[in-house]
């Protein structure tokens, strides 16, 4: 496994380090990773890479017309095997942990009937989707226990890796942690024509962490990043995946509440990033490091044909918190025999129009009580108030938002509902190509600042923006914008 020294050296040389700011910032973060400590009891009994990777089941429509697919989803409390030989109570969509995957098409409507079979309210947000207020899944637009709500997604946006998760305020953090999330993969003809790896070679990866007690029960405590040291991929602890010696496309979602992942292959090999939150990049980006804060997505290709059959290749995480023998590993790829491969990664992936001229500038600060001083979190020094509109925006306008993390020790990120944005600058410097695509979530180390450009030309109404380190959102780091 890479040591911390290897990680720092990789961070100082890899071109993708700009995704977290300066190389110095990454080096400081890695250097601050706490030393290894004893494993938690339940995780101590799990042999890493002993379970195979599984892929969430595809959710099939119960009805389809010429324009629309209809789906039915129920949120309920079930028991599932996460740690081998142990059944753990989770919250699940249609009994699946994580939830089943919707594969939708751009320009084709999806209608999803969501039923709440839990004893607490829920709200289903399609993260990254441009949907009207009544189908956004806002913090206060909840489904009561025993009730049903229908969400309508017109899918009028480019192909992208999106995901659904609970958003009921003050409950969202625990609900998501216990399992209420799932993939929503949007495709289109332009993406199909590129010849990227597809079918069984197009693999979703929902990566997160969890804490288990000595009976295998999932433990939730607000802000408990240090103890959530069991790494799960598609709901499986440190899984292994058998791959053929050819190219694979991976669609990764960081569905953790708080953990930031800085990912690399154990041999320092090339990863080709082709997409971010809002879809494909303009061109592929060769990197050794992927950085994903909670809610962010990365679409990337690994070519396993460069490895001999029998090679065991780790996907590693370079930063804590937590015991390095646990949080430093994510999953293992076991390379098999070569296979025919007609897939390609074209030099041009997507055409991006010129950015419109902005007419409004705004500033936002993110801050929360430092450790030991409280449990409140703020945007512009205010905690969330559902009866308050914090920002009023004229429909059709383009704005530039400067977002600054003023916390002294705590990282944050920033997520906007309804709109994808473009990151113009990070700490006054141009962003690297991996961050230059369509985004809806951006990561900020303490003291960092970003400038974002957003155009509000899809829907009118009231929508939230918030920190997607979702425990922070539940503590109050959320506000509301109204597009009029």
UniProtKB/TrEMBL annotation:
Enzyme Commission (EC) number: 1.16.3.4
Q: What is the enzyme's class at the highest EC level?
A: oxidoreductase
Signal peptide (residue range):
1-27
What InterPro entries has UniProt attached to this entry? Cu-oxidase-like_N, Cu-oxidase_C, Cu-oxidase_fam, Cu_oxidase_Cu_BS, Cupredoxin, TAT_signal
Report which reactions are catalysed by this protein. Answer: 4 Cu(+) + O2 + 4 H(+) = 4 Cu(2+) + 2 H2O
Q: Which domain of life is it from?
A: Bacteria
Which Pfam families is this protein grouped with? Answer: Cu-oxidase_2, Cu-oxidase_3
- Which GO MF term does the entry hold, naming one? copper ion binding
**Keywords noted in UniProt:** Capsid protein, Metal-binding, Oxidoreductase, Signal, Virion
Q: Where would I find the Plastocyanin-like domain in this sequence?
A: 82-189, 363-482
Family designation: Belongs to the multicopper oxidase family.
Instruction: Quote the subunit structure annotation.
Output: Monomer.
Instruction: Write the protein's name.
Output: Multicopper oxidase CueO
Please report the organism this UniProt entry assigns to the protein.
Answer: Streptomyces smaragdinus
Source gene?
cotA
């Amino acid at each position: 496994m890479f040591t911390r020294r290897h990680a720092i050296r990789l961070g100082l040389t890899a071109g993708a380090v700009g995704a977290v700011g300066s190389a110095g910032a990454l080096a400081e973060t890695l250097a601050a990773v706490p030393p290894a400590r004893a494993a938690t009891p339940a995780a101590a009994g799990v042999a890493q890479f002993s379970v195979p990777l599984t892929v969430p089941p595809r959710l099939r429509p119960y009805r389809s017309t010429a324009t629309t697919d209809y789906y039915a989803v129920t949120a309920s409390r079930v028991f599932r095997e996460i740690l081998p030989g142990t059944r753990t109570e989770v919250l699940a969509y249609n009994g699946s942990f994580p939830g089943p995957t919707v594969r939708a098409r751009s320009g084709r409507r999806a209608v999803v009937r969501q039923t709440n079979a839990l004893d607490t309210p829920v709200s289903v947000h399609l993260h990254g989707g441009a949907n009207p207020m009544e189908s956004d899944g806002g913090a206060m637009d909840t489904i009561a226990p025993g009730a049903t709500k229908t969400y309508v997604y017109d899918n009028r946006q480019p192909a992208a890796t999106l995901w659904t998760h609970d958003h009921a305020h003050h409950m969202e953090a625990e609900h998501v942690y216990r399992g209420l999330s799932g993939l929503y993969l949007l495709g289109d003809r332009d993406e199909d024509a590129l010849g990227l790896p597809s079918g069984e070679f197009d693999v979703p990866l929902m990566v997160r962490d969890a804490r288990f007690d000595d009976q295998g029960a999932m433990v939730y405590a607000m802000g408990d990043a240090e103890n959530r040291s069991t790494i799960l991929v598609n709901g499986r602890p440190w899984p292994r995946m058998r791959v053929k010696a050819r190219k694979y496309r991976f669609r990764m979602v960081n569905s953790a509440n708080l953990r930031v992942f800085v990912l690399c292959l154990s041999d320092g090999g090339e990863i080709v990033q082709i997409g971010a939150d809002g879809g494909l990049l303009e061109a592929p980006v060769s990197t050794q490091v992927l950085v994903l804060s909670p809610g962010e997505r990365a679409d990337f290709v690994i070519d396993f044909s460069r490895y001999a059959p029998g090679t065991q290749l780790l996907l590693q995480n370079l930063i804590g918190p937590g015991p390095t023998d646990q949080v430093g590993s994510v999953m293992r790829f076991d390379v098999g025999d070569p296979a025919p491969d007609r897939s390609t990664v074209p030099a041009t992936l997507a055409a991006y129009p010129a950015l419109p001229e902005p007419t409004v500038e705004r500033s936002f600060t993110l801050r929360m009580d430092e450790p030991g001083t409280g449990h409140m979190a703020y945007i512009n020094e205010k905690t969330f108030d559902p009866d308050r509109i914090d920002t009023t925006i004229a429909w059709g306008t383009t704005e530039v938002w400067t977002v600054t993390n003023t916390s002294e020790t705590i990282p944050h990120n920033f997520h906007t509902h309804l709109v994808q944005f473009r990151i113009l600058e990070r700490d006054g410097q141009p962003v690297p190509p991996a961050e230059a695509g369509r985004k809806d979530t951006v990561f900020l180390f303490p003291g960092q600042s970003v400038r974002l450009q957003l155009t509000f030309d899809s829907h009118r109404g009231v929508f939230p923006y918030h920190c997607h380190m979702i425990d922070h959102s539940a503590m109050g780091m959320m506000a509301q914008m109204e597009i009029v």
